[in-house]
Amino acid sequence: KNLKKHFPIKKGIFGKTVGHVKAVDDISFYVNEGETLGIVGESGCGKSTTGRVLMRLLEPTEGEIEFDGKNLIDLSVEEMRKTRRDIQMVFQDPYASLNPRHTIGKILEEPLIVHGILNSKERKKKVEEFLVIVGLHPFHAKRYPHQFSGGQRQRIGIARALMTNPKLIIADEPVSALDVSIQAQVLNLMQDLQEEFNLTYIFIAHDLGVVRHISDRVGVMYLGKLVEISDSESLYEKPLHPYTQALLSAVPVPDPDYAKEQIIIEGDIPNPANPPSGCTFHTRCPFKMDICTVDSPKLVEHTTGHSVACHLYDESQVGNDIKQLEGS
Ligand code: SF4
Ligand code: MG
Q: ABC transporter domain: which residues (predicted)?
């Protein structure tokens, strides 16, 4: 709720704060138990920072994080450490997140040791069991990360996240570094595991195509703000925000007969340290109106379960359209 993460920009030898990068700027959303919420946006939009803040790997500047009836912000370091058993993360680059000098067995056992789960013999058994669950073999426990392919390493990363029987998994671009042919396998595995272990996912990705089939709901971020959030069906069928429309038009369609017009977003992502006034998307938006440069649109529910932050959908704006129609 109202989550913010602002990083100070420091200058000079005394490290004087001269401004802030508003990496996450007042976003609110929820994820229901057992569902997958996709969070999508270009790099630098704040989606990874959001994931880290939710786990308090980064302290939020402001806001509340309610999980299982507790506000995580109120927890002590020790209580938060215990809670992390229930919230695990899967990272984009499985190679960078697996210690190259440790065997897979040791890597998978570590979260169990940290949280004081099971005795040594039971832990080893659980490691072997979970290697099989993610599609590997018990003998892989003796091997090292470099002996595996990218896809296998991501399976190991997923197994590690599962070791503590978490409720929520925050997956930060878990398939972005993988070949397209391998991506589908890992996504299918994650979906099977979700069902088997009743997991809740927050699935971060940079393109809407990846999260399409896995997400129950999808949120789109731009420059630290959530600009649209909706159940998947409604979002993919009727994207409301011009940015979502552009992102979606870039997703290839499997049916070649259905040619769609690609919307090209002009210009680069603005500097997050100095974001545009009003709607931060106005510098690239093909539908920009006068109000957009001065007033920041709020995220409001447009239809049930589908919210958007864009002046095109303001009540007053809708009213104007109707007035124009009536006048003509
Ligand atoms: Fe475009 Fe204005 Fe909507 Fe922003 S508020 S997305 S600039 S129409
Ligand atoms: Mg990222």
A: 1-248
Expressed in angstroms and rounded, the spacing between residue 91 Cα and the centre of ligand 2 is 9
258 secondary structure, DSSP code: S
Confirm whether 322 is domain-assigned.
no
How many Å lie between the centroid of ligand 2 and the Cα of residue 215?
18
Kindly state the tokens that stand for 18: 């001269």
Partners of 7 in the β-ladder: 21
Q: What is the ipTM of this complex?
A: 0.96
In total, how many domains does the chain have? 1
Task: Establish if 280 belongs to a structural domain.
Answer: no
Q: Global pTM?
A: 0.91
* Cα–ligand 1 centroid distance for 266 (angstroms): 14
Give nearest CA residue, ligand 1 atom 7: 282
- Tell me, using a 6 A CB cutoff, whether residue 311 lines ligand 1: yes
Ligand 1: which atom is nearest the Cα of residue 287? 8
Tell me the C-alpha distance between 149 and 95, whole Å. 9
CATH number, domain of 183, equals 3.40.50.300
Which atom of ligand 1 lies closest to the CA of 297?
A: 5
Residue 300 within a domain: no
Q: What is the extent of the structural domain holding 116?
A: 31-261
> Residue 87 and residue 38: Cα distance in Å, rounded?
16
Indicate the pLDDT class of residue 13, thresholds 50, 70 and 90: confident
Q: Give 177-221 pLDDT, tens digit per residue.
A: 899 889 999 999 999 999 999 999 999 999 899 899 899 999 999
Q: What are the counts of helices (DSSP H) followed by strands (DSSP E) for the chain? A: 11, 12
Indicate whether residue 167 lines ligand 1 (CB < 6 A): no
Interatomic CA distance for residues 247 and 314, integer angstroms: 22
